[in-house]
Amino acid sequence: MTLVLIAIGLAALIAGLGGILVARYNGRPAPAAFVGLASVAAPLLLLSLFVGDAGGVTDVLGSALLLAGLLGLVMLLSLPLLNRTNASTASVVAGSIATALTLAISIWLIVTTGDGRSTLTILGFVFLLLGIVAAVIGALWLVIQLIRRKARPVLAFVWSAVSLAIIGFVGVAVLSPSPEPVPEAFTSSADLDRYLEDLTDSGGPPGISLVVVKDGTMVYNKAFGLADGPNGIPASPDSIYHWFSVTKIPTAIAALQLVEQGVISLDDEVSQYLPFFDVEYPSADSQPVTIAHLLNHSSGLPDDIPACLGCVHLEDEPALNQTDLLRDVKLPSYNTLKFEPGSKAVYTNVGYHTLGVVVEQASGQSYEEYVQRNILDPLGMDNTRFEYTAAMTPNAAVGAHPMTDFQSIFFPLIEAPWPSEFVRDYDDGWAWFNRFLFDANPPSGLIGPAPEMARLGTALLNGGELDGARILSEETVEMMLTERHVTPGSSPQWGDFGRFEDWEQGLGFKVVNDGGRVHYAHGGGGAAFRAFMRLYPEEELGIVILVNSTNLDRQDIADAVADMDW
Known about the structure:
- By secondary structure, this protein is α+β, with helices and mostly antiparallel strands.
- α1 packs parallel to α3, α3 (57-82) runs antiparallel to α4 (87-113) and α8 runs parallel beside α11.
- The chain has 16 helices and 17 strands.
- The chain is globular, with a radius of gyration of 27 Å.
- The chain folds into two domains: 2-175, no CATH class; 189-562, 3-Layer(aba) Sandwich (Beta-lactamase).
């Protein structure tokens, strides 16, 4: 850790000094700015060398070192902006203020987060964002000054801005976890065990649960790492994780059950069940949005990413009515179709929220009640629900997010460095979350353990039946897997499925033809958790992976697991 701090401190010092050397005003250097920066950075650098990590002092000093680059920017800004002979005096004043703020903010961040590594990460992001903004402003300013043939003073600003962004980027990259890479193959289950242990020990997800089903039997069901890092609680097969978007599979099953019963039809218009479904179509000739369009993401409804990442509430807050949420909040903001319904598939959480509300209106039950009664309970999924029950709470994995991840910018849950009701702890570069629930349940709301997700997958591999309980007929399962496939359109929400050259969106699952070997998969992810299910019906093979972290190389892990001799 000390070496990392020293490297970041040196980078800040060099960038600041480089900017100062460029910053000449009326042919004179800015000695006050040079002295101001050196007086802050050099002593902190020397102290870091001698103090080391004792008592967390290095973290405080390292944070201050990182902010020393910001000090350089403040002083450099004073030079070209003032255009007066008192520029050096102004830089001294600015430098003194920045020095005091440097130390005060560093100490405050340490106290707030309770963790120096998180503090460094926060500062890295601050530098990166400030640098990008300043670079854009500086570039525009430079263009104006070039036109006026007065560009020389602006070079200092641009240099500082770019240096700031580089420092932030490098700092975040250096501090980012480096998980164990996935091997091309696992030779045995013991080999898989060793890899998963190394993965959780090397900066990968804190905890992971993995289940493999073969020929209707659970042949691998293990967990590794920590369900709760700060409290040292190990992950277990019973650990409860958020499923996030894998919830769309039970939602699709619920809709297909109603199709099977003749309550709804795939070609029925959504407005038949939702009178408030008033959307703006691309043209007067557009075909209406149907149930099938919702199932295979071809409705044209926009997605609410990244806004939906903040659409959560703590577990002790009341659950939301799904129909009210869709009618009053979601649809008014996402009611303009982005393309002709049925023309292509583009991932949309709003579409699956709409599908869940169709289930509510057609069944006369709440979405949550319907799914529990008709899918979870029949399959014996007693610890999979839309809220934490008393039985689930002791096994609840604590969600974690690496502060050095660039996705942190999009997660309002973290709210670092300010105190957040969602973050329970900052520990060793991770934000550990309080238990939270998703607002929109049909696309993302389920929570449960890996073995129970595997039971759902096993039922589908068995043609809709498990242990005498049938949730779909064999014909409906066949339809779910083989009919109404749509070519995917361009969308960042497809995520790691973009790695496959031959795949389509089906009625729930992504259908992947990987070199002639067909599998059906769905993933889920967001702040603090990641989930994955992959099924090979022809081989009666299923894989389920759940982790309490935002990131996971789930496709490579699933590839290697699928190639094992089970």
